[in-house]
């Protein structure tokens, strides 16, 4: 298999983001470094941690 990549200039006029997932990333063009950050906008006192539920219950 021969795979050839040709990088050319791109021009993005407008990007409209309708929603962002909990782990979303939008990249336009090339990048050398990606820095991960996190934002938690709910007050800590409203966080309720209950018992863990398995995603695939046995049986």
UniProtKB/TrEMBL annotation:
Name the record gives this protein: Spore germination protein PD
Originating organism: Bacillus benzoevorans
